[in-house]
Design brief:
alpha/beta, 10-stranded mixed β-sheet, 9 helices
Length: 348
């Protein structure tokens, strides 16, 4: 027994030393369209052997990025995989910071860019194809597991999804929840409109079907049984998830909610409350971060970031505002602690 204990200690410290000498590798992978699937641009972060060639990715005039080593060699060993799903109209850059936190703990992280969500004049009559989002995640997972470059490096039995805002909706779909636009929009004749009623195109009420009904693809079963854990970050819209399908979710779920609500967005704390209330109690954890806003889950703004965003997109400088209690870096530390603690239990 003493020898076994010593061996375990040696293995633990060897693993810790290996991670201490690692870097954050970064790659961009393109998945072509075909066979009914759309083309995807996928970002990949992973524990890497230091190459000496560093770069900052995901940074611009308003937001800080992450230091990585592009195309560095992936470290040996089989590692859990976390798939990230960004919010409406966003990109991989939004959760770039979180990818760094996960890689430092030994995870491989991948994030496809979900397309087709802009409200430009050219597509103003089209429905936003929300059903494509879960398919993007499943296709990314399949591509990574089938890629010879990562053979044996990703543990297919330890896969999680983390989604922010509409990415949280995506994560819940992958966990087995089913959505009904009719249920979500049933209160749209009320005096006080629920947030989702202000975005009918988001729920498929305009354009494709032609008779005012939601596109049936929105209510399809999009579950991926390879997903073993889910993290929802201030998700929305949630009101259309059928309660019986939430009660049937079999994987553990961590629900994080922002305590500070903003009128500019459709996701509200009630969405996270609704999900947590209907998910199985034994496998669901719920935490509210009182001084976080919806955008606190995104990357950190630079000191003049709000002014820069406002100049480029008038009225949208609020993406840099939190709840006023702490700065975003401190909020990120709390978010990361909650997620890493959850995944350590559920994926190991």
């Amino acid at each position: 027994m003493r020898n076994l204990l010593l061996a375990a200690i040696v293995i633990f410290f060897t693993a810790q030393a290996a991670m201490a000498g690692s870097a954050i590798g970064f790659k961009r992978i393109e998945l072509p369209d075909g066979a009914g699937a759309r083309a995807l641009a996928v970002s990949l972060w992973y524990p890497a052997a230091p190459s000496g060639k560093s770069a900052i990715v995901g940074e611009n005039a308003a937001f800080y990025g992450l230091e990585v080593q592009p195309d560095a060699a992936l470290l040996a060993g089989s590692r859990p995989l976390v798939l990230l799903s960004h919010g409406f109209g966003g990109s991989w850059r939004n959760l770039n910071w979180m990818a760094g936190e996960l890689v430092r703990e030994g995870y491989v992280v991948a994030a496809p860019d979900h397309g087709g969500e802009s409200f430009t004049e050219e597509n103003a009559t089209e429905i936003v194809p929300l059903w494509e989002r879960p398919r993007d995640i499943s296709r990314t997972l399949t591509a990574l597991l089938d890629d010879e470059r990562f053979a044996g490096r990703i543990d297919a039995a330890r896969v999680a999804v983390i989604g922010h805002s509409l990415g949280g909706w995506t994560a819940m779909e992958l966990a087995g929840a089913r959505y009904s636009a009719e249920l979500a929009l049933k209160d749209c004749k009320a005096e006080t409109l629920p947030p989702q009623c202000k975005a009918p195109r988001l729920l498929g009420k305009v354009g494709i079907v032609g008779d005012g009904r939601a596109d049936p693809r929105l209510s399809a079963d999009l579950r991926d049984i390879r997903i073993r854990a889910v993290v929802s970050l201030d998700l929305g819209p949630a009101a259309g998830f059928l309660p019986e399908t939430l009660r049937g979710v079999e994987v553990p779920v961590l629900v994080l909610a922002a305590g500070v609500e903003r009128k500019e967005i459709a996701a509200i704390k009630a969405d996270s409350d609704y999900i947590a209330r209907n998910l199985p109690k034994a496998t669901t954890a719920y935490r509210e971060i009182p001084d976080a806003s919806h955008f606190s889950f995104m990357q950190i703004c630079k000191p003049n970031g709000e002014k820069i965003v406002e100049a480029l997109s008038p009225g949208e400088g609020f993406v840099c505002r939190d709840g006023g209690g702490r700065d975003r870096a401190a909020i990120h530390a709390q978010i990361a602690e909650a997620i890493l603690g959850f995944l350590k239990v559920e994926l190991h």
